[in-house]
Amino acid sequence: MLCDSPGLDEKEEAGLCIDDIPHILKGCIPDRYQLTRKPITPSHSTFITSPSLKERIHCVAYVLDVNSVNHLPCKMVKKFKRVQKEVLHLGIAHVALLTKVDNWDEILQDNFLNMNRSMTYESQIMYVSKMLTIPISNILMVGNYASECELNPFKDVLILSVLRQMLRATDDFLEDLPLE
Predict the structure, then answer these.
(1) 138 with 169: CB under 8 angstroms?
(2) What is the pTM of this model?
(3) 3-state DSSP call for residue 34?
């Protein structure tokens, strides 16, 4: 199952409440719960005190615009680092998705071997790797469908290969869990 949440925002009064993130990662917030700016607490009526494995998050995907990642405000970088610290503490698999990529030829060469070694996007890849302490192999690039009327098979192949990489990271995470 894929889980989506509001994104982080530079402003404190907007975006996902950063205090909810540990509860989301641990599976303490029920499916379809409407997140608000007020953090959920263990005393909330729907708070899950003993989440099962299926309720926990198994892979976190940071989604960043490749064209603006090098210019993130300091407050956003601090928020990303705070989230990543919690992800690492819990041992959860993680990847970064760089979106709005438009240089297909370079990325799709040699059966996807260049996905993480793109010269065009090298500075962005290195910045994200350093900021989030994510291995370069876990930084993946995808294109977006924004206003196209037709599907683009190159974008589709890239998106599906990224999904496969995320599933592999998740599988590795699950294999490393102790038997319950």
Answers:
(1) yes
(2) 0.81
(3) coil
pLDDT tens digit sequence for 84-111: 999 999 989 999 988 887 665 555 555 4
From CA 159, how far away is CA 128, in angstroms rounded?
Answer: 19
34 to 31, 54, 74: CA distances (angstroms)? 9, 19, 28
Phi-psi region at 34: left, alpha or beta (left = phi > 0; alpha = psi -120 to 50): beta
Neighbouring-strand partners of residue 95 = 61
Of 115, 110, 157, the residue nearest 139 (C-alpha) = 115
Q: How many CA atoms lie within 13 A of 83 on its CB side?
A: 27
User: Are 98 and 66 within 8 A, CB to CB?
Assistant: yes
What is the spatial order of strands in the sheet that 139-141 belongs to?
59-65, 93-99, 139-141
pLDDT at 169: 87
Angle between helical axes of 74-90 and 122-132 (0-180°, round to 10): 60
CA angle centred on 8, ends 126 and 160, rounded to 5°: 60
Report H helices in the chain. 21-26, 74-90, 104-107, 122-132, 153-175
Backbone phi, then psi, for 7, in 5-degree steps?
-80, 170
How many Å apart are CA 47 and CA 24, to the nearest integer? 10
